[in-house]
């Protein structure tokens, strides 16, 4: 924040001597399009330019990347620009995710143009109803975000070179090995470089699998949906990146996604751990040519990708759910009774995901004891605590008996655990944020910013620095269900 010099360094049209801007190709899915290299499959960073890697005084390495700085060799027919709407979303949410304790890229700066506007397809004001792609051309302010990560190496980069090796292109296998060794040095520095390459590759896949589990479980803990989890935006360092068709679950739906292009809900909320495993499989598949050359190891590779991943996922999902419920242990009763019954009620009762967990953390040991002793009467008191989370009395009504039954079961378990009230509730609050970047909050912030008013952006940025705190002064404004006028609204509940 020491002024215009820092901003100019990140936004100036002149290329500074310390920066060598470059864009990179990734595999993703082969897309036939003109490209400057004559391969006919131009797919890569269409509006992202890496400036280089900086080293902090503490020795940390951060790669800086501009998003929206103009065309790259992979822009195809696009202009390489970003608009303020998408830039505000990424700036606020990537920083919020950091403070939510979710692995993520960071936002270093956001600069809006005072004079440049560009036409983009989006949704008309008041556009509501069934999900559909953008259908209106709007004039939007241009912006550039600078994001940072230890590296932006992705699974898709290795996939690209593996595809070339599979076609037996001259030198392709050597290029794949060079890139893999560089990726290990950059993103897997804990691996001993003196080990045989086969052992390094196995350890690389094992670590990446752990990172994918950590990431997917963190997303489910806070209610985040990435929207698009292809290999082209899956970082080897295990961080969330490329905030595009993302969203936070408001009314709970186990397969919810705001991304209209994902009609099959392959990347829906509760399916994200599976999608993360697919990216692990993709990485492993990209390394197979090197295993073949090294003389085996595919059985070990398969075990890591399938058995080890699922075992770790099961353990971490259980621990995450234990914390959110405030239980003393994750056991058979929790996994086979408490959790399945709760998930069914959440799915059927029109419940706000974030508010539900925070309200559940208000259940005291005394209230739980009352529910144990008094039955339905005591359970009714617990149900009253959850009322702020329910969207519709009509949709809740058929399931009231189910909620009373579950709350009695939960009260019995809480009472039997005998955990100190303060300890249990504090753990629950640390597992379940009170404030997340709901899309209607972001819409309000970027709409005001479009007119030069950044006060809401500043307010949200400050709020998201401490998303687990109570903030009573902002509770009425932000600790609330989706406003009626925003439900099923294009560009809020869904987008592309």
UniProtKB/TrEMBL annotation:
Keywords for this protein: ATP-binding, Magnesium, Metal-binding, Nucleotide-binding, Nucleotidyltransferase, Transferase
Cofactor(s), names only, from the UniProt record: Mg(2+)
InterPro entries: SelO (IPR003846)
A Pfam short name: SelO
GO CC terms of this entry: mitochondrion
Keyword Transmembrane helix appears in the UniProt entry: no
Domain of life: Eukaryota
Membrane-spanning residues: none
Single Gene Ontology MF annotation: AMPylase activity
PANTHER family xrefs: PROTEIN ADENYLYLTRANSFERASE SELO, MITOCHONDRIAL
Family classification: Belongs to the SELO family.
Protein name per its UniProtKB record: Selenoprotein O
Organism: Diacronema lutheri
